[in-house]
Sequence to fold (422 residues):
Amino acid sequence: MNTIMKKFILQISMILVLLPASAKNYIWLHGMEGHSGANTWDIYKDDLTKTNGKIYEYKSTSGIKKIAENLSGTIKSAGDTVDQILIGHSMGGLVARSLQQITPGIKGIITVGTANNGSVAVENVLTGKIINQISLMIAGVSLAFDASILYATASAPPVTTLAAPVVVPLTIIKNILMFQTLYSMNESFNSLVNFYAFTHQCIYDMKPNSAYLKEINGKKIDVPIINIYGAEDNWQIIRALGSLKRVKDVKNPLNIDKTFDMDFVQGVRSGMGIVNQIRNLHNSVYNTLGVPAVFMPWLWITRELILKARYNWDKIYWDLETGMHAKLAVNLGAVGYKNQSYCIPSGYSLGKLVCTTKYLPYVTDNDGILAGSSSIINDTLSSVVVHTIRVENVNHQEMGNHPKMRKTLENIIKLKSYGDSF
Fold:
């Protein structure tokens, strides 16, 4: 072999060594009924895989295995069977796992907000056990308003005189709190429940311990998997409902890195401010009646009724702040128990506290629709590493458009933080 040929071979070898590993191709899969309108992945498909990514749409009218079979045929026909990474959102993650079982060339899977262990919310909808705490809130608020107005208008002077300036503001406040916030939030909640009430087989496949999940989770995992789940920071369900209400804005590529989950949060915060004002109004009337009640004993009954009405508003404030959100989380199975310490006054003495420790409920990680524990993949049958990523402040609707979600996917796809497999 002459010197020129040796140099040529050496140069070719060096070029091959310096070339990056073959680029992966990415197949993006939406969730249930995601083929209608804007796609969950319209933003990130172009942002992260403009030249080597495709969105494959599917209809959700059959079981997940059947959906995967149909998609497999489409992918094979298109020749997309070399070095493919599947990225599935929600039910799309389960479609990806089934697709990998029957399609050549799948080198890895990324599931995002996927009910790998089933969705408790789906089961509660299908079994009629869903609790609409928002509807209960509406009923409670309506009764509280009616009771307060009744006590103010049906009482004898000087109560009617003192309460007269309160009645009109109460009516206005009722319209703001009820119609602008609670009714709108309830409409979004009901639309979500109706969405899960479809009779498609894929819905039943997502019930915990379904035959489909037992089968797919019982199979050996032989390709690398990254499982991503969202952990919204607080008031998770109403943030997810807010994003659902503005889902077209969330999915619009012009709105990359913008979030749309604050509508109901701001409404509830305003509601808490309104309720606090109402509590203060009740306190003011109650305290003012203390002096005339000395001379008009019948006012003591009125004072107690006003105090009772104030207690209704105390409960509503607590529900808006904490209770409603915890009770809504029960629908998702996002409630756990742990030892917690708390202290309460001893009798009437506010200065002396009695402290105790009990197992008490708390809201666990969830994205407003799916509990984090429902997403975790059991890796006991895996021959490869299964990565689990918790993404803070991201709800189920925002997984296709949120700064933290984009950063997570960039780390995986562009920076190869989890290896060249992805």
Summary: The beta strands are 25-29, 53-56, 84-89, 106-112, 225-231, 335-346, 349-363, 386-392. The chain has two domains: 21-118+199-258+367-413, 124-195+264-332.
